[in-house]
Amino acid sequence: MTPTDSRPPLTLLLAAPRGFCAGVDRAVKIVETAIARHGAPVYVRHEIVHNRHVVDALRARGAVFVEELDEIPDDGRPVIFSAHGVAKSVVSEALRRRLFTLDATCPLVTKVHREAERHHAQGRHILLIGHEGHPEVVGTMGQLPHGAVTLVQDVAEAERLVPPAGVPLAWTSQTTLSVDDTAAVVAVLAARFPGLMGPAKDDICYATSNRQAAVKAIVAGGAEVVIVVGAPNSSNSVRLAEVAERAGARRALLVQRGADLDPALLDGCAAVGLTAGASAPEALVQEVIARLATRFALTEQEVRVAEERIEFRLPPALTRDLPPALTRDSPPALARDRAGPLASRTLAAD
Length: 350
Hints:
Strand order of the largest sheet: 10-9-11-1-12
Structural class: alpha/beta
Number of strands: 12
CATH topology of the largest domain: Rossmann fold
Low-confidence stretches: 323-350
CATH class of the largest domain: Alpha Beta
Largest sheet: 5 strands, parallel
């Protein structure tokens, strides 16, 4: 702030990690690479990730988003399953129609699918902690026969749950839940059902855990209000807002981009926090920072709780026989998006 700057000072605590995770980065690259290699259109079942900015940018390049396979013609074009995963019935229908499919399911979601299948094969009934209707939950439940999984959404449901009699139980969870909420549900289930089996490691993904820990850190560091960049239908983004308020923030603001933020809401604050859900690109975080700078003289401080170096490979069908430059990164023709509409910090894929 210069001596003539009339803007009030504001400390901006930037959560790190934030934004794109490895699974989201992989899913977006799958769509980008499919378009670069096969041309448009490329069909995507459901939003590839829950972020309107990302979806609209891919749509502009030639991605066609549909909710069901019956909306896709039999024209040989690539069909991509979203990062949230799909039920086995969807895969079976795609095979029946001989569609050319590319699976963008996050590998950590696939891990949950395999765990559920293993427990089922060993005779256990599955208790799935998650939110009814979320695509990831629908996909996970769809890995097993009807009735093999019971959904548990919260502590209240865990307390009144009546599972099948005489059947051993195992739990698994949606990957984008609140770490604390899930732990509370598991504690109730474990107390009620001795012998309950769980995953070797909690199913909430590393990126979700890290982003929630970073939010707690910026609140502990003095953030009175926390801004979360993310979509209202993004489970991990909504959880970040909830975590911020439970950690002691006076308020959490969920915004999709800079234009959605009213900086006047922060008048009187000495410090605010800023983070982004795992499906929100860094370009949108920078929009919010620019928006804040129109009203405040900002001092930025990064609060880092973890380094993320995980990278997930693209499907072999997209990397086979491609030049090395294309297998290591996005196609050169898409480099403009990395610095523009789809620019991202991509912390998890460094």
